[in-house]
Every structure is written in C-alpha cells, then in structure tokens.
Amino acid sequence: MTDRVEIEDSSERFDNAVEVIESVGGELHDCYLTMGEYDSVTVAEFPDDDAAAKTLPRIVQAGAASSETMQAWPREGSHEHVTNLPRAAGRTAIRVSVLQFPMGRFEQFEHDRRRRIYEYVESQGAVEPETVRRNVLVTPETSSKPARSGPNLPPSTPMSFREFRDHVSTLERDGYLTERDGRLRVALPMTDAETTVELDDETEATVRPARQEDMDGVVGVVEILAAEDAYAVARRLADQVAREDVLLRHNEAGNRVFFVATVDDETVGWLHVEAVSSPMMDHTAELTVGVLAQYRGHGLGSTLMERGLDWAREQGLRKVYQSLPATNERAIGFLEDAGWSVESTREGHYHVDDELVDEVQLAIWLDA
Q: Nearest 5°: CA angle at 274, between 272 and 276?
C-alpha cells in the first residue's frame, strides 16, 4: 500500500472507518491522534477474528495506511504479549494501530455469548427466551482452525437449549436480566414499585420505572416538550435514545434509567437520570424531567423527581444537575421550589427563534 494521503483527509477517513467497523458487528471504543511514531491509535472491539480480519482491507481502500492489528488483553495475565510496531514510512502517510480487545473487556461480561444475549434483550425490551435463543446466532465451536471466508466458513446457528439456559441463569444471578410473565427483561437497578397520583375525581396517573416497551411513548413526550420549551438537552436525549434504540442501560458501559408517568397506559411525563461515567465526575448525574401541560399542577413532576433522586442516592451519587434555557421560567421555578440552586449562567448559549438565549445550570446536592 504505497499511495499517500494528506493528513487533512484523516477526519473523513475516520468517519468511513467507523462505518466499516460497525458494518461487521464491531464497535469503536476510542481513537487517539498521537505524536511520534504513529499518527493514530484506534481501540476497537469485534465479535470474532474473522470480522476483524475483514475490516482493515476495506478501510485502506481509501488510501495508504500502514497498520498493525493486534489482539489485546487486560494487563493482568498479559505480561508475555509484546508487539514491535514498524516505523512510519513518511509524515504524510497515516499509520493506524488497531487494538482488538476480546469481547467483554469493556462491559465486563465473562463470556461473549452472555454479552450478546444481554444486548439483544436490552434492545428488545421484553422478549420470550426462545426468541432470544433463535436470534442470537453463534459460530459453532470446533477444534480445527475455521476458514477465513468462502463456502467452508461454518454457518451461524442458535445456541443449544442447555447452553442458552446456562448463560441466562448466570445473567439473572449477576443481576443483568430478569424473567417476568414468560419474558426476559433487563433487570432494573431499582424497585419496580408503582406510585399513584390522583389528577381529579375520575382520573389517576401512575408513576413507575420505565420499560423498553415504553420507548416510543417516552421519546414522543420528550420531543413535544423539547419543541415547546426550547429544551435543548431533552431534544438531544430524544435523539440519543431513538438512535441507540435502547431506553434503559444497566451494565459497565453505562447506567441510565427512566421513570414514566402514564394515564390509561399512555405516557404523559418522564424523568431521566444518567450517571456520568468520567472518573472525576462519577459522583454526579444529569437529570431531565417533563410533564405534558394538561397534566401539570397535580404533583406528577414532584413524584417523578422524588423517584429519580431516590435512585441517584441508591447509586451512591452525591450531586444531580440539569441545564435549561433561561426562557423556561416555569421549569426553573419548579426546580428552585424543590431545593435546586442556580450554579451558573452561560450567556447566549442557545439560538432560538433568531434570538440568543442564556442557559441556566442548576444542581442539587443529595443527602447521604
């Protein structure tokens, strides 16, 4: 691979590389631009060696890229793995080092197949065990080295009933999954209790932890309020949930929960809390909350807030924060009445209807 590409093209090529990695079932974890011997180091995770082997040739089709692909292990037990990397051929060529971690390195599942079972259930919400078994396909294990491609590559097949049941039992034991009403679900890191709020003599609302099947209703309500109140953080949240197609997350990759308020099984309000994963901020969480206008004034927002802050305390979090446009005086007043304090204001942070609008950042410290 002798063609040269300018370093300025690296951003576009990086985007193309992400698409290639994801197309084979892989996941990009980190990418670093580096000084010295290498221009970049990419950390990616693939379902198997075959998927990793297919990735690099497709990436370098866009131009020259000297590369070294290595399987990597955690530091413990890996002292004998040492790799010598080649020196760059020139500063206009992009050198890429792709570190292929075995699945489970980042989310701490002890077995790749358990991780895949969990992720399938997480994306589906509530699903019958047999449906999971049929859709989580695996490559049959063999003592001989499998073919890299072509007709001799072993086909993907469902796990045996016994193996699947063993993996599910372990996931249930470790608190990742639970089975209820004949369906597997993500095990919620909280009580599943419901709270009833009377709206009038004939109508009552229910506040409870959200389930994956609530996703469409939650996203719909978030989008309505984001548009009405220029709630940019909520707008971003709706886009993220819709893109990921996952409402709840309870694993080493993240801890995100939703509570919903429903009337006749229709979502009318939500509260979202997401723990910050940064090591220096892992005592904090971001919160968003909203209730449709016609259901306000009956304590739904306060009940949602109470459930969300209780969850944050149970996780050992100390501080919860959120950001609102200064024009949303109603929401800011609601938070201040609930004990939140304004920490800062960022001038002209939003551009709404051809006007610059300040952002108000509020937070509350939690009791131990």
A: 155
